[in-house]
Structures are given as structure tokens and as C-alpha cells.
């Protein structure tokens, strides 16, 4: 257990390009639109998702140029790893769930 914790603590940070998608109205399941793009340094996807969730749900941490609603159930994050591919995660009631497709308008 301690070894796993130490490995995670020592894991090098990587730059992730994050794109946040929301539907025009809360609760919709189609018609996602890009509302914000940012780059963050994180050790893995789990840490990146936690950082973004906190950033877009704490008023004092939100970027000044962000004008969409708080991050909520149904919103999607696209994590771009440069030449190593992309991953999409949807915020569900139980946390982030990896998804294979989003409907963008």
C-alpha cells in the first residue's frame, strides 16, 4: 500500500490539454458545445479530472474568462494527450465515466 502511494507521489506530471463541453441547457443529452479550453499539469487522468472539477465548481478558482455554468452532471471533458490520443469523460452521479463518443453541435 505504501509503495503504491509513493509511486503515485513520485509520478512525473504531464501537460494535458483539456476541452470542456456542455449542452445549451442542463440535463440535455445531445448538442454539446465547447465552452472552455485549458492546459493543466497532472500526473494522470484521475488527477486532471479532479483538478478541473474543483476549478469549475469553486467560484474563486474559476478562470476570469470562463462564462459558462458550473461543471455538473452530464458535462464532458476531452483530454488531449497530443500525439498519444484523446480520451473523453462524462460527469455522472457516481463520478467521472470514460465515454467513447459525444454529440457535438
Please supply descriptive tags for the structure shown above:
alpha+beta, 2 helices, 5-stranded antiparallel beta sheet
Write the layout of secondary structure elements.
Blueprint: H1 2-10, E1 14-22, E2 33-42, H2 45-55, E3 76-80, E4 86-92, E5 95-99
Antiparallel strand pairs: 1-2, 1-3, 3-4, 4-5
Pfam family, one: YodL
Domain YodL-like: 28-97
Protein name: YodL-like domain-containing protein
Sum this structure up briefly.
The chain is built from two helices and five strands. The chain has 105 residues and is α+β, with helices and mostly antiparallel strands.
Characterization of this structure:
The chain is 19% helix and 34% strand. The mean pLDDT is 87. It is built from 2 helices and 5 strands. The longest helix is centred in the middle third of the chain and has 11 residues, at 45-55. A hairpin with a 2-residue loop joins strand 4 and strand 5 (95-99). It has 105 residues and is an alpha+beta fold.
Number of helices: 2
> Strand order, biggest sheet?
2-1-3-4-5
- What's the SSE pattern? HEEHEEE
Average pLDDT, rounded to a whole number, is 87
- The total of beta strands comes to 5
The largest pleated sheet is described as: 5 strands, antiparallel
Large-scale geometry: globular
Q: Report, as a whole number of angstroms, the end-to-end distance.
A: 45 Å
How much of the residues is beta strand, in percent? 25-35%
Provide the helix percentage: 10-25%
What low-confidence regions span 5 or more consecutive residues with pLDDT below 50? none
Query: Which class do the helix and strand fractions yield?
Result: alpha+beta
Number of spatially distinct domains: 1
**Rounded Rg:** 14 Å
InterPro entries: YodL-like_dom
Domain YodL-like: 28-97
Organism: [Anoxybacillus] calidus
Protein name: YodL-like domain-containing protein
Amino acid at each position: 500500500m505504501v509503495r503504491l502511494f509513493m509511486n503515485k507521489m513520485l509520478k512525473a506530471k504531464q501537460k494535458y490539454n483539456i476541452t470542456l463541453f456542455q449542452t445549451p441547457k442542463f440535463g440535455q443529452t445531445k448538442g454539446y458545445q465547447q465552452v472552455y479550453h485549458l492546459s493543466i499539469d497532472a500526473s494522470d487522468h484521475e488527477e486532471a479530472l479532479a483538478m478541473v472539477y474543483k476549478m469549475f465548481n469553486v467560484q474563486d478558482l474559476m478562470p476570469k474568462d470562463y462564462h459558462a455554468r458550473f461543471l455538473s452532471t452530464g458535462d464532458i471533458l476531452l483530454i488531449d494527450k497530443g500525439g498519444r490520443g484523446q480520451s473523453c469523460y462524462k460527469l455522472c452521479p457516481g463520478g467521472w465515466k470514460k465515454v467513447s463518443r459525444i454529440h457535438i453541435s
